[in-house]
Amino acid sequence: MTTNRSVWQATATIPEYGAIAGDQHCDVLVVGGGVIGLTTALYLQQEGTDVVLLEAARIGARTSGNTTGKVTSQHGAIYANLVDRHGRHKAEQYASANQGAVDQIALLVDRLGIECELTRGPSFVYSASNLQREADVAWDLGLPAQLAEPDETGLPEQGTSAVRFDDQVMLHPLRYLAGLARAFVEAGGRIHEHSRVTELDASDGRVEALTAVGPRVSAAHVVVATLLPIGTVGGYFARTRPNQSHGIAVRLPVEAPATMTISADAPVRSTRPWPGGGPNGLIVVGAGHETGAEQDTDAAYRSLIDWVGSLWNTDAQPDYRWSAQDYSSPDLLPYVGRAPGSPILIATGMNKWGLTNGTVAAGILRDTILGRDNPWSELYDARRIGDARAVAELVKDNLKVGKEFATGHLSRILGRGLDHVEVGEGGLYDLDGKTVGAYCDHDGRLHTVVPVCTHLGCPLRWNQGDTTWDCNCHGSRFTPDGSVLDGPATTSLAKPDN
Protein backbone atom coordinates (compact mmCIF):
# COMPACT_ATOMS: atom_id res chain seq x y z
CA MET A 1 0.00 0.00 0.00
CA THR A 2 1.23 3.47 -0.88
CA THR A 3 1.69 5.93 1.98
CA ASN A 4 0.71 9.51 1.16
CA ARG A 5 3.69 10.99 2.93
CA SER A 6 7.25 11.97 2.12
CA VAL A 7 9.68 9.08 2.46
CA TRP A 8 11.81 11.45 4.54
CA GLN A 9 8.94 12.31 6.89
CA ALA A 10 8.26 8.62 7.37
CA THR A 11 11.85 7.67 8.19
CA ALA A 12 13.20 10.42 10.45
CA THR A 13 12.97 11.11 14.17
CA ILE A 14 12.70 14.85 14.78
CA PRO A 15 13.30 16.40 18.20
CA GLU A 16 10.10 17.93 19.57
CA TYR A 17 9.97 21.51 20.77
CA GLY A 18 7.04 22.97 22.66
CA ALA A 19 4.88 25.87 21.53
CA ILE A 20 5.80 29.32 22.75
CA ALA A 21 4.18 29.91 26.14
CA GLY A 22 4.98 33.54 26.92
CA ASP A 23 6.30 36.76 25.45
CA GLN A 24 10.01 36.69 24.59
CA HIS A 25 12.80 39.06 23.56
CA CYS A 26 15.85 38.23 21.45
CA ASP A 27 18.43 39.67 19.11
CA VAL A 28 17.12 37.81 16.06
CA LEU A 29 13.80 36.08 15.43
CA VAL A 30 13.81 33.49 12.64
CA VAL A 31 10.40 32.51 11.29
CA GLY A 32 10.38 29.08 9.64
CA GLY A 33 12.01 25.76 10.50
CA GLY A 34 13.18 24.64 7.07
CA VAL A 35 16.71 24.60 5.67
CA ILE A 36 16.98 28.40 5.35
CA GLY A 37 15.60 29.16 8.79
CA LEU A 38 17.60 26.50 10.64
CA THR A 39 20.86 27.22 8.87
CA THR A 40 20.50 30.97 9.44
CA ALA A 41 19.61 30.46 13.09
CA LEU A 42 22.55 28.12 13.66
CA TYR A 43 25.02 30.46 11.95
CA LEU A 44 23.90 33.42 14.06
CA GLN A 45 23.73 31.52 17.35
CA GLN A 46 27.26 30.26 16.79
CA GLU A 47 28.33 33.89 16.39
CA GLY A 48 27.04 34.70 19.88
CA THR A 49 23.70 36.18 18.78
CA ASP A 50 20.60 35.37 20.84
CA VAL A 51 18.18 33.69 18.41
CA VAL A 52 14.60 32.43 18.68
CA LEU A 53 13.14 30.25 15.91
CA LEU A 54 9.37 29.88 15.49
CA GLU A 55 7.90 27.13 13.32
CA ALA A 56 4.20 26.97 12.41
CA ALA A 57 4.05 23.15 12.55
CA ARG A 58 7.05 20.83 12.97
CA ILE A 59 10.67 21.23 11.92
CA GLY A 60 10.94 20.37 8.21
CA ALA A 61 7.22 19.69 7.96
CA ARG A 62 6.73 21.31 4.57
CA THR A 63 9.00 21.96 1.56
CA SER A 64 12.38 21.23 3.18
CA GLY A 65 11.13 17.85 4.36
CA ASN A 66 9.72 17.00 0.93
CA THR A 67 12.70 17.63 -1.36
CA THR A 68 14.63 15.05 -3.39
CA GLY A 69 17.55 15.42 -1.01
CA LYS A 70 19.90 16.37 -3.85
CA VAL A 71 22.66 18.78 -2.86
CA THR A 72 24.09 19.85 -6.19
CA SER A 73 25.13 22.87 -8.22
CA GLN A 74 23.62 21.18 -11.28
CA HIS A 75 20.25 22.91 -11.44
CA GLY A 76 19.14 21.35 -14.68
CA ALA A 77 20.68 22.78 -17.87
CA ILE A 78 20.71 26.32 -16.46
CA TYR A 79 24.18 27.77 -16.97
CA ALA A 80 24.13 28.63 -20.68
CA ASN A 81 20.79 30.32 -20.02
CA LEU A 82 22.23 32.28 -17.07
CA VAL A 83 25.13 33.54 -19.19
CA ASP A 84 22.77 34.61 -21.98
CA ARG A 85 20.42 36.25 -19.52
CA HIS A 86 22.75 37.85 -16.96
CA GLY A 87 26.25 37.74 -18.41
CA ARG A 88 29.25 35.64 -17.51
CA HIS A 89 30.09 37.37 -14.22
CA LYS A 90 26.71 36.81 -12.59
CA ALA A 91 26.50 33.26 -13.93
CA GLU A 92 29.94 32.55 -12.45
CA GLN A 93 28.79 33.98 -9.11
CA TYR A 94 25.72 31.74 -9.10
CA ALA A 95 27.84 28.70 -9.97
CA SER A 96 30.43 29.47 -7.30
CA ALA A 97 27.81 30.18 -4.63
CA ASN A 98 25.98 26.91 -5.17
CA GLN A 99 29.04 24.71 -5.56
CA GLY A 100 30.32 26.29 -2.36
CA ALA A 101 27.02 25.39 -0.69
CA VAL A 102 27.50 21.72 -1.67
CA ASP A 103 30.80 21.71 0.17
CA GLN A 104 29.43 23.76 3.09
CA ILE A 105 26.61 21.28 3.72
CA ALA A 106 29.05 18.36 3.63
CA LEU A 107 31.27 20.28 6.08
CA LEU A 108 28.35 20.93 8.45
CA VAL A 109 27.38 17.26 8.38
CA ASP A 110 30.95 16.27 9.25
CA ARG A 111 31.54 18.90 11.94
CA LEU A 112 28.20 18.38 13.65
CA GLY A 113 28.28 14.59 13.34
CA ILE A 114 24.89 14.41 11.60
CA GLU A 115 23.82 10.93 10.50
CA CYS A 116 21.87 11.68 7.32
CA GLU A 117 22.96 9.12 4.68
CA LEU A 118 25.26 11.64 3.00
CA THR A 119 27.05 10.23 -0.03
CA ARG A 120 29.12 11.79 -2.80
CA GLY A 121 28.63 10.94 -6.46
CA PRO A 122 28.03 12.24 -9.96
CA SER A 123 24.92 14.09 -11.10
CA PHE A 124 23.70 14.11 -14.71
CA VAL A 125 21.41 16.33 -16.76
CA TYR A 126 20.35 14.70 -20.02
CA SER A 127 18.43 15.76 -23.12
CA ALA A 128 17.37 14.79 -26.62
CA SER A 129 19.19 17.95 -27.72
CA ASN A 130 22.93 18.58 -27.83
CA LEU A 131 24.24 19.76 -24.45
CA GLN A 132 27.79 20.49 -25.59
CA ARG A 133 27.42 24.25 -24.97
CA GLU A 134 25.96 23.66 -21.50
CA ALA A 135 28.95 21.47 -20.63
CA ASP A 136 31.44 24.00 -22.01
CA VAL A 137 29.80 26.95 -20.22
CA ALA A 138 29.55 25.11 -16.88
CA TRP A 139 33.22 24.09 -17.07
CA ASP A 140 34.25 27.65 -17.98
CA LEU A 141 32.35 28.92 -14.91
CA GLY A 142 34.47 26.72 -12.68
CA LEU A 143 32.06 23.84 -12.14
CA PRO A 144 33.15 20.14 -12.16
CA ALA A 145 31.35 19.60 -15.47
CA GLN A 146 32.02 17.56 -18.58
CA LEU A 147 30.08 16.21 -21.54
CA ALA A 148 29.18 12.59 -20.86
CA GLU A 149 27.88 9.58 -22.71
CA PRO A 150 24.12 9.21 -22.18
CA ASP A 151 24.43 5.63 -20.93
CA GLU A 152 26.53 6.88 -18.00
CA THR A 153 23.32 8.10 -16.36
CA GLY A 154 22.32 4.53 -15.59
CA LEU A 155 18.82 5.08 -16.97
CA PRO A 156 17.48 2.67 -19.62
CA GLU A 157 16.44 5.69 -21.72
CA GLN A 158 18.89 8.59 -21.58
CA GLY A 159 18.29 10.91 -24.53
CA THR A 160 21.19 11.70 -26.86
CA SER A 161 23.36 14.03 -24.76
CA ALA A 162 24.32 14.42 -21.10
CA VAL A 163 26.39 16.64 -18.83
CA ARG A 164 28.09 15.15 -15.77
CA PHE A 165 28.89 17.07 -12.58
CA ASP A 166 31.32 15.17 -10.36
CA ASP A 167 31.52 15.04 -6.55
CA GLN A 168 27.96 16.14 -5.84
CA VAL A 169 26.01 15.17 -2.70
CA MET A 170 22.76 13.50 -1.73
CA LEU A 171 21.40 13.03 1.78
CA HIS A 172 18.33 12.41 3.94
CA PRO A 173 17.09 16.02 4.17
CA LEU A 174 14.96 15.66 7.28
CA ARG A 175 17.69 13.95 9.29
CA TYR A 176 19.98 16.77 8.19
CA LEU A 177 17.47 19.35 9.46
CA ALA A 178 17.12 17.46 12.73
CA GLY A 179 20.89 17.68 13.14
CA LEU A 180 20.88 21.43 12.50
CA ALA A 181 18.09 21.88 15.05
CA ARG A 182 19.97 19.93 17.73
CA ALA A 183 23.15 21.90 17.10
CA PHE A 184 21.27 25.20 17.27
CA VAL A 185 19.67 24.34 20.61
CA GLU A 186 22.95 23.02 22.01
CA ALA A 187 24.51 26.40 21.11
CA GLY A 188 21.84 28.15 23.21
CA GLY A 189 19.13 28.78 20.62
CA ARG A 190 15.41 28.49 21.33
CA ILE A 191 12.96 26.64 19.05
CA HIS A 192 9.18 26.74 19.41
CA GLU A 193 7.06 24.53 17.15
CA HIS A 194 3.30 24.87 16.60
CA SER A 195 3.80 28.64 16.89
CA ARG A 196 2.63 30.20 13.63
CA VAL A 197 3.50 33.87 13.17
CA THR A 198 0.43 35.72 11.94
CA GLU A 199 1.61 39.33 11.98
CA LEU A 200 4.82 41.37 12.01
CA ASP A 201 4.94 44.95 13.27
CA ALA A 202 8.05 47.12 12.91
CA SER A 203 8.40 50.16 15.14
CA ASP A 204 10.95 51.93 17.36
CA GLY A 205 13.86 50.04 15.83
CA ARG A 206 12.48 46.60 16.68
CA VAL A 207 10.12 44.11 15.06
CA GLU A 208 7.36 42.41 17.03
CA ALA A 209 5.85 39.12 15.92
CA LEU A 210 2.37 38.02 16.97
CA THR A 211 1.76 34.28 17.08
CA ALA A 212 -1.47 32.36 16.55
CA VAL A 213 -1.13 30.90 20.06
CA GLY A 214 -0.98 34.35 21.64
CA PRO A 215 2.51 35.26 22.85
CA ARG A 216 4.63 37.86 21.07
CA VAL A 217 8.34 37.95 20.30
CA SER A 218 10.25 41.22 20.11
CA ALA A 219 13.56 41.25 18.19
CA ALA A 220 16.09 43.66 16.79
CA HIS A 221 16.07 41.68 13.53
CA VAL A 222 13.55 39.31 11.95
CA VAL A 223 14.26 36.76 9.23
CA VAL A 224 11.20 35.38 7.45
CA ALA A 225 12.13 32.01 5.94
CA THR A 226 8.65 30.68 5.21
CA LEU A 227 8.86 29.67 1.53
CA LEU A 228 7.05 32.91 0.65
CA PRO A 229 6.99 35.82 3.11
CA ILE A 230 3.78 35.84 5.15
CA GLY A 231 1.03 38.29 4.31
CA THR A 232 2.07 41.02 1.89
CA VAL A 233 5.66 41.63 3.07
CA GLY A 234 7.70 42.98 0.15
CA GLY A 235 5.01 42.13 -2.39
CA TYR A 236 6.78 38.85 -3.21
CA PHE A 237 3.44 37.14 -3.76
CA ALA A 238 3.27 39.24 -6.96
CA ARG A 239 6.97 38.80 -7.85
CA THR A 240 7.13 35.00 -7.82
CA ARG A 241 5.07 32.04 -9.04
CA PRO A 242 4.19 28.97 -6.94
CA ASN A 243 5.08 25.60 -8.43
CA GLN A 244 4.27 22.13 -7.19
CA SER A 245 6.17 18.93 -7.96
CA HIS A 246 5.32 15.35 -7.07
CA GLY A 247 7.50 12.51 -5.86
CA ILE A 248 7.42 8.74 -5.44
CA ALA A 249 9.72 6.23 -3.72
CA VAL A 250 9.55 2.89 -5.51
CA ARG A 251 11.37 -0.46 -5.54
CA LEU A 252 12.42 -1.54 -9.05
CA PRO A 253 12.61 -5.17 -10.17
CA VAL A 254 16.33 -4.60 -10.82
CA GLU A 255 19.11 -2.64 -9.14
CA ALA A 256 18.40 1.10 -9.30
CA PRO A 257 20.80 3.57 -10.92
CA ALA A 258 23.39 4.79 -8.41
CA THR A 259 23.54 8.27 -9.95
CA MET A 260 21.49 11.44 -9.62
CA THR A 261 19.78 12.48 -12.85
CA ILE A 262 17.44 15.14 -14.19
CA SER A 263 16.01 15.67 -17.66
CA ALA A 264 16.47 19.02 -19.38
CA ASP A 265 13.40 18.32 -21.51
CA ALA A 266 9.77 18.39 -20.43
CA PRO A 267 8.22 16.60 -18.73
CA VAL A 268 11.03 16.89 -16.19
CA ARG A 269 12.00 13.71 -14.38
CA SER A 270 14.51 13.83 -11.51
CA THR A 271 15.90 10.64 -9.95
CA ARG A 272 18.22 9.55 -7.17
CA PRO A 273 18.82 6.33 -5.23
CA TRP A 274 16.61 5.60 -2.24
CA PRO A 275 18.88 3.98 0.38
CA GLY A 276 15.94 2.93 2.55
CA GLY A 277 14.53 0.93 -0.35
CA GLY A 278 17.60 -1.28 -0.63
CA PRO A 279 19.64 -1.67 -3.83
CA ASN A 280 16.46 -1.48 -5.94
CA GLY A 281 15.12 1.68 -4.28
CA LEU A 282 14.58 4.75 -6.46
CA ILE A 283 13.13 8.20 -5.87
CA VAL A 284 11.50 9.96 -8.83
CA VAL A 285 10.30 13.56 -8.73
CA GLY A 286 8.57 15.54 -11.48
CA ALA A 287 5.13 16.14 -12.98
CA GLY A 288 5.45 19.80 -12.03
CA HIS A 289 2.73 22.40 -12.47
CA GLU A 290 1.68 25.72 -11.02
CA THR A 291 0.05 25.29 -7.63
CA GLY A 292 -3.72 25.10 -7.97
CA ALA A 293 -3.60 24.86 -11.77
CA GLU A 294 -4.28 21.13 -12.20
CA GLN A 295 -7.78 19.70 -12.08
CA ASP A 296 -6.59 16.09 -11.62
CA THR A 297 -3.52 15.95 -9.39
CA ASP A 298 -3.81 12.18 -9.07
CA ALA A 299 -2.75 12.13 -12.73
CA ALA A 300 0.59 13.68 -11.76
CA TYR A 301 1.41 10.70 -9.57
CA ARG A 302 0.18 8.27 -12.22
CA SER A 303 2.50 9.87 -14.79
CA LEU A 304 5.52 9.17 -12.58
CA ILE A 305 4.45 5.58 -11.98
CA ASP A 306 3.86 5.09 -15.71
CA TRP A 307 7.31 6.52 -16.51
CA VAL A 308 8.97 4.06 -14.15
CA GLY A 309 6.91 1.25 -15.62
CA SER A 310 7.87 2.14 -19.19
CA LEU A 311 11.61 2.20 -18.43
CA TRP A 312 11.85 -0.87 -16.20
CA ASN A 313 8.88 -2.92 -17.44
CA THR A 314 7.22 -3.07 -14.05
CA ASP A 315 3.84 -2.39 -12.51
CA ALA A 316 5.35 -1.84 -9.06
CA GLN A 317 3.45 0.68 -6.97
CA PRO A 318 5.36 3.23 -4.89
CA ASP A 319 5.84 2.78 -1.17
CA TYR A 320 5.48 6.55 -0.68
CA ARG A 321 4.15 9.46 -2.65
CA TRP A 322 4.19 13.17 -1.79
CA SER A 323 4.35 16.66 -3.21
CA ALA A 324 6.46 19.73 -2.57
CA GLN A 325 5.99 23.39 -3.37
CA ASP A 326 8.45 26.14 -4.17
CA TYR A 327 8.48 29.58 -5.77
CA SER A 328 10.36 30.77 -8.84
CA SER A 329 11.45 34.29 -9.71
CA PRO A 330 11.15 35.64 -13.26
CA ASP A 331 14.93 36.06 -13.66
CA LEU A 332 15.90 32.62 -12.25
CA LEU A 333 17.67 34.09 -9.19
CA PRO A 334 16.41 33.92 -5.57
CA TYR A 335 15.45 37.00 -3.55
CA VAL A 336 17.48 37.27 -0.35
CA GLY A 337 17.98 40.22 2.00
CA ARG A 338 15.94 43.14 3.28
CA ALA A 339 12.46 43.47 1.81
CA PRO A 340 11.74 46.76 -0.01
CA GLY A 341 10.66 49.49 2.40
CA SER A 342 10.94 47.18 5.39
CA PRO A 343 13.48 46.15 8.06
CA ILE A 344 12.35 42.52 7.64
CA LEU A 345 14.81 40.12 6.00
CA ILE A 346 13.46 37.48 3.62
CA ALA A 347 14.56 34.58 1.41
CA THR A 348 12.31 33.26 -1.35
CA GLY A 349 12.30 32.09 -4.97
CA MET A 350 14.69 29.14 -4.60
CA ASN A 351 13.27 27.63 -7.82
CA LYS A 352 13.26 24.07 -6.39
CA TRP A 353 16.97 24.12 -5.48
CA GLY A 354 16.54 25.12 -1.86
CA LEU A 355 19.22 22.95 -0.25
CA THR A 356 22.06 24.79 -1.99
CA ASN A 357 20.38 28.15 -2.68
CA GLY A 358 18.96 28.09 0.84
CA THR A 359 22.40 27.55 2.34
CA VAL A 360 23.74 30.46 0.28
CA ALA A 361 20.78 32.53 1.52
CA ALA A 362 21.58 31.71 5.15
CA GLY A 363 25.09 33.08 4.74
CA ILE A 364 23.77 36.29 3.17
CA LEU A 365 21.22 36.77 5.96
CA ARG A 366 23.80 36.15 8.68
CA ASP A 367 26.25 38.63 7.17
CA THR A 368 23.55 41.27 6.61
CA ILE A 369 22.55 41.13 10.29
CA LEU A 370 26.16 41.19 11.49
CA GLY A 371 27.06 44.07 9.16
CA ARG A 372 29.48 42.07 7.02
CA ASP A 373 30.03 42.04 3.29
CA ASN A 374 28.88 38.91 1.47
CA PRO A 375 30.07 38.03 -2.04
CA TRP A 376 26.60 36.91 -3.15
CA SER A 377 24.34 39.57 -1.61
CA GLU A 378 24.19 41.75 -4.73
CA LEU A 379 23.40 38.80 -7.00
CA TYR A 380 20.51 37.68 -4.76
CA ASP A 381 19.41 41.24 -3.86
CA ALA A 382 15.84 41.06 -2.52
CA ARG A 383 15.11 44.63 -3.67
CA ARG A 384 16.05 44.22 -7.32
CA ILE A 385 13.48 44.85 -10.00
CA GLY A 386 15.05 42.67 -12.68
CA ASP A 387 15.63 43.12 -16.39
CA ALA A 388 13.01 43.96 -19.03
CA ARG A 389 12.26 40.28 -19.60
CA ALA A 390 11.63 39.74 -15.89
CA VAL A 391 9.28 42.73 -15.74
CA ALA A 392 7.38 41.45 -18.80
CA GLU A 393 6.99 38.03 -17.17
CA LEU A 394 5.73 39.62 -13.95
CA VAL A 395 3.10 41.58 -15.88
CA LYS A 396 1.98 38.41 -17.67
CA ASP A 397 1.83 36.42 -14.43
CA ASN A 398 -0.19 39.05 -12.62
CA LEU A 399 -2.66 39.36 -15.48
CA LYS A 400 -3.15 35.61 -15.13
CA VAL A 401 -3.68 36.03 -11.39
CA GLY A 402 -6.32 38.68 -12.07
CA LYS A 403 -8.15 36.31 -14.40
CA GLU A 404 -8.04 33.53 -11.80
CA PHE A 405 -9.37 35.92 -9.17
CA ALA A 406 -12.35 36.78 -11.40
CA THR A 407 -13.22 33.38 -12.89
CA GLY A 408 -11.54 30.70 -10.77
CA HIS A 409 -14.76 29.01 -9.62
CA LEU A 410 -16.54 28.93 -12.97
CA SER A 411 -17.50 25.51 -14.40
CA ARG A 412 -16.03 23.58 -11.46
CA ILE A 413 -19.13 22.89 -9.35
CA LEU A 414 -19.44 19.12 -8.85
CA GLY A 415 -23.04 19.06 -7.71
CA ARG A 416 -25.82 20.59 -5.67
CA GLY A 417 -26.14 19.85 -1.97
CA LEU A 418 -23.81 17.85 0.26
CA ASP A 419 -25.89 14.72 0.78
CA HIS A 420 -24.02 12.60 -1.72
CA VAL A 421 -20.37 13.53 -1.27
CA GLU A 422 -18.63 10.17 -1.55
CA VAL A 423 -15.94 8.94 0.85
CA GLY A 424 -12.56 10.21 -0.37
CA GLU A 425 -14.20 12.77 -2.64
CA GLY A 426 -13.72 16.53 -2.46
CA GLY A 427 -14.48 19.61 -4.50
CA LEU A 428 -16.86 22.51 -4.92
CA TYR A 429 -20.61 22.19 -4.34
CA ASP A 430 -23.61 24.47 -4.59
CA LEU A 431 -25.39 24.82 -1.26
CA ASP A 432 -28.47 27.04 -1.42
CA GLY A 433 -26.87 29.24 -4.04
CA LYS A 434 -23.49 29.48 -2.29
CA THR A 435 -20.27 27.76 -3.37
CA VAL A 436 -18.99 25.47 -0.61
CA GLY A 437 -15.81 23.42 -0.47
CA ALA A 438 -16.41 19.91 0.86
CA TYR A 439 -14.41 16.75 1.47
CA CYS A 440 -15.53 13.44 2.97
CA ASP A 441 -12.61 11.72 4.71
CA HIS A 442 -12.11 7.97 4.93
CA ASP A 443 -13.84 7.85 8.30
CA GLY A 444 -16.96 9.30 6.68
CA ARG A 445 -16.59 12.76 8.26
CA LEU A 446 -17.59 15.70 6.10
CA HIS A 447 -15.35 18.78 6.16
CA THR A 448 -16.71 22.01 4.71
CA VAL A 449 -15.04 25.37 4.11
CA VAL A 450 -15.59 28.63 2.31
CA PRO A 451 -13.21 28.05 -0.63
CA VAL A 452 -11.75 31.56 -0.66
CA CYS A 453 -8.10 32.16 0.21
CA THR A 454 -7.62 34.22 3.36
CA HIS A 455 -4.53 35.90 1.89
CA LEU A 456 -6.11 38.17 -0.76
CA GLY A 457 -9.45 36.50 -1.48
CA CYS A 458 -8.66 34.33 -4.51
CA PRO A 459 -10.84 31.27 -5.19
CA LEU A 460 -9.39 27.91 -4.14
CA ARG A 461 -9.17 24.66 -6.05
CA TRP A 462 -9.43 21.16 -4.62
CA ASN A 463 -6.25 19.07 -4.96
CA GLN A 464 -7.51 15.48 -4.94
CA GLY A 465 -4.03 13.93 -5.09
CA ASP A 466 -2.90 15.63 -1.86
CA THR A 467 -6.35 16.35 -0.34
CA THR A 468 -5.66 20.06 0.05
CA TRP A 469 -7.25 23.35 -0.93
CA ASP A 470 -4.80 25.23 -3.17
CA CYS A 471 -4.62 28.84 -4.33
CA ASN A 472 -3.46 29.32 -7.90
CA CYS A 473 -2.97 33.07 -7.35
CA HIS A 474 -0.18 33.02 -4.77
CA GLY A 475 0.27 29.42 -3.61
CA SER A 476 -1.39 29.29 -0.20
CA ARG A 477 -2.53 25.77 0.69
CA PHE A 478 -4.98 24.52 3.31
CA THR A 479 -6.02 21.21 4.87
CA PRO A 480 -9.53 19.82 4.21
CA ASP A 481 -10.79 21.48 7.41
CA GLY A 482 -9.24 24.82 6.41
CA SER A 483 -6.05 25.00 8.49
CA VAL A 484 -3.10 26.74 6.81
CA LEU A 485 -0.44 24.44 5.37
CA ASP A 486 1.56 26.96 3.32
CA GLY A 487 1.46 30.76 3.24
CA PRO A 488 1.45 33.58 2.43
CA ALA A 489 -1.95 33.13 4.13
CA THR A 490 -1.81 33.06 7.93
CA THR A 491 -5.50 32.56 8.76
CA SER A 492 -7.62 29.41 8.46
CA LEU A 493 -10.49 29.22 6.00
CA ALA A 494 -13.92 30.36 7.10
CA LYS A 495 -16.73 27.86 7.66
CA PRO A 496 -19.90 28.06 5.53
CA ASP A 497 -22.15 28.69 8.54
CA ASN A 498 -20.06 31.66 9.79
From TrEMBL:
UniProt-listed InterPro entries = FAD-dep_OxRdtase, FAD/NAD-bd_sf, Rieske_2Fe-2S, Rieske_2Fe-2S_sf, Rieske_Fe-S_prot_C
One Pfam family recorded for the sequence: Rieske
Q: One GO molecular-function annotation for this sequence?
A: oxidoreductase activity, acting on paired donors, with incorporation or reduction of molecular oxygen
Please provide the record's keywords in A-Z order. Answer: 2Fe-2S, Disulfide bond, Iron, Iron-sulfur, Metal-binding
Is Coiled coil one of the keywords UniProt gives this record? Answer: no
Which cellular components does GO assign to this protein?
Answer: cytoplasm; membrane
Which residue ranges does the record assign to the Rieske domain?
413-498
Q: Which domain of life is it from?
A: Bacteria
Q: What is this protein called?
A: FAD-dependent oxidoreductase
